[in-house]
C-alpha cells in the first residue's frame, strides 16, 4: 500500500519541524511526505528542506489551503492508496500511519480522523481541549463523524479519486467551501463511504490562545458550515448537523432565560429558594463534569474550570454569539452579494500575515 502525507503550511516556521519529526518517527513510514508551502513569508520552506521530505514552494494561492491540497494531491497523491492530511502545527502519535493502514481495509472505508487534543496551558486552550474531547466522544459513540479534520486524518485513495472526478472541482477539495474538510466528508458520505473517528490514533494540535483568535477561527468554521448546509439542504446526511445548530442556540437561550427569571425575581423582591431552581445549573454542571473527566491529560485546573462553572458556561454563551454572528454574515452576503474572505479574517485575528 502506498501512503502519501500532504502537509499544507502557511508561515509555520515554529512548528513545521516537530510536525515532520512526528511523521519520520512513525512505526510505519509513509512513502512520501509532501510539504506544501503556500505563500510563506517566513522560514517555513528553509526549515522543511532540512528534512528528507518533498517541499513545494508555492506563491500565495487564491483558494489557500484547499488549492494547496489539490496541487499536492494532483502531483504526488493521485495514485496513492492512502492519503494523510496534516496541518503544519499537528503532531501525530507514532502508531498513526500503521493503524490508519489497518483501518483502511474496513468495508467502504472513506476516511478516519484523529482524536485531537491540546496540551497548551491557559484558560482558552483548556476550554477548547474540553470542546474537542466532547466532540470526539460524540463521534466515537455514534460510530461515524461528519468531519474528517484536515489537521490529522487519513483518506482512502480510491474514494478521493471518485470525489475528484466530479465536475465542480479540480481535486478532492472544493473551492466553494470555506470549510473544505466538512464539504469533503459530506461528499464521501454522499458517495456511500464510511467516515470514522479512530479509536487508537491521537493528534496534538495548537489551540487559539485568546478570545479574538478563537472568535476568528470559529466564525470561519461556523459561517462556512452554514453555507454548506444551506447548499446541501436538509437530508439524512445533514439532519443531525441542523439539529446541532439548533441545540447550540438553545443552550445559551436557556441560560439567558434562567438568569432573566432570577434577576426579575430579585427586582420584584420575590426570590425564594427552592430545590427546583437549582436544576438548570446542576444539570449543566453535571454534563460539563462528565466531559471534563474524559479530557486526556487533564489536571486539577481542567476540573476546577468545570466546578467553578462560570468559565465553561461563558464559552457556551460566546458560542451562541458566534452562531448568531455567522447567521448575520450569511444574511449580509445575501443582501450585498459580496463574499468576505473568512481565511483573511481568521489570519488577522491570529495576528498572522495573510
Features:
354 residues; alpha/beta; Spore Coat Polysaccharide Biosynthesis Protein SpsA, Chain A; 2 domains; 8-stranded mixed beta sheet; 53% helix; globular; membrane; transferase; glycosyltransferase activity; transmembrane; transmembrane helix
Please describe what this structure looks like.
With 354 residues, the chain is an alpha/beta fold. The protein has two domains: 3-207, Spore Coat Polysaccharide Biosynthesis Protein SpsA, Chain A; 239-350, no CATH class. The protein is built from 13 helices and eight strands. The protein has helices spanning 16-24, 44-48, 64-77, 96-103, 123-142, 157-164, 180-190, 211-232, 239-267, 279-294, 300-308, 310-336, 342-350, and strands at residues 3-9, 32-38, 54-58, 82-86, 91-92, 109-117, 152-156, 194-204. Strands 3-2-1-4-7-6-8-5 form an eight-stranded mixed beta sheet, with helices on both faces. Helix 9 (239-267) packs across helix 12 (310-336) and helix 10 packs antiparallel against helix 11. The longest helix is centred in the C-terminal third of the chain and has 29 residues, at 239-267. It is globular, with a radius of gyration of 21 Å. The mean pLDDT is 91.
Amino acid at each position: 500500500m502506498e501512503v502519501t502525507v500532504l502537509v499544507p503550511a502557511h508561515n509555520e516556521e515554529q512548528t513545521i519541524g516537530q510536525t515532520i519529526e512526528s511523521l519520520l518517527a512513525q512505526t510505519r513510514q509513509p512513502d512520501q511526505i509532501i510539504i506544501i508551502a503556500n505563500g510563506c513569508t517566513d522560514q517555513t520552506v528553509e526549515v522543511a528542506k532540512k528534512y528528507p521530505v518533498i517541499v513545494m514552494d508555492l506563491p500565495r494561492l487564491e483558494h489557500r489551503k484547499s488549492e494547496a491540497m489539490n496541487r499536492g494531491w494532483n502531483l504526488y497523491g493521485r495514485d496513492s492508496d492512502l492519503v494523510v492530511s496534516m496541518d503544519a502545527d499537528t503532531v501525530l502519535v507514532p502508531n498513526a500511519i500503521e493503524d490508519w493502514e489497518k483501518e483502511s481495509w474496513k468495508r467502504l472505508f472513506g476516511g478516519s480522523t484523529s482524536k485531537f487534543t491540546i496540551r497548551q496551558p491557559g484558560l482558552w486552550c483548556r476550554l477548547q481541549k474540553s470542546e474537542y474531547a466532547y466532540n470526539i466522544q460524540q463521534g466515537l459513540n455514534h460510530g461515524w463523524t461528519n468531519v474528517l479534520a484536515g489537521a490529522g486524518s487519513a483518506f482512502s485513495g480510491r474514494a478521493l479519486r471518485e470525489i475528484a472526478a466530479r465536475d465542480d472541482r479540480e481535486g478532492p477539495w472544493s473551492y466553494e467551501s470555506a470549510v473544505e474538510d466538512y464539504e469533503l466528508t459530506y461528499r464521501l458520505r454522499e458517495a456511500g463511504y464510511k467516515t470514522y473517528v479512530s479509536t487508537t490514533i491521537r493528534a496534538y494540535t495548537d489551540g487559539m490562545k485568546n478570545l479574538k483568535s478563537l472568535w476568528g477561527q470559529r466564525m470561519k468554521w461556523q459561517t462556512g458550515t452554514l453555507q454548506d448546509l444551506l447548499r446541501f439542504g436538509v437530508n439524512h446526511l445533514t439532519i443531525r448537523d441542523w439539529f446541532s445548530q439548533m441545540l447550540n442556540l438553545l443552550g445559551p437561550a436557556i441560560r439567558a432565560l434562567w438568569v432573566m427569571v432570577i434577576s426579575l425575581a430579585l427586582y420584584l423582591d420575590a426570590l425564594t429558594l427552592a430545590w427546583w431552581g437549582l436544576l438548570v445549573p446542576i444539570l449543566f454542571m453535571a454534563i460539563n463534569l462528565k466531559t471534563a473527566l474524559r479530557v486526556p491529560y487533564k489536571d486539577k485546573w481542567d476540573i476546577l474550570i468545570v466546578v467553578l462553572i462560570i468559565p465553561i458556561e461563558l464559552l457556551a454563551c460566546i458560542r451562541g454569539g458566534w452562531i448568531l454572528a455567522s447567521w448575520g454574515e450569511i444574511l449580509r452576503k445575501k443582501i450585498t452579494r459580496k463574499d468576505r474572505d473568512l481565511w483573511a479574517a481568521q489570519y488577522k485575528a491570529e495576528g498572522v500575515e495573510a
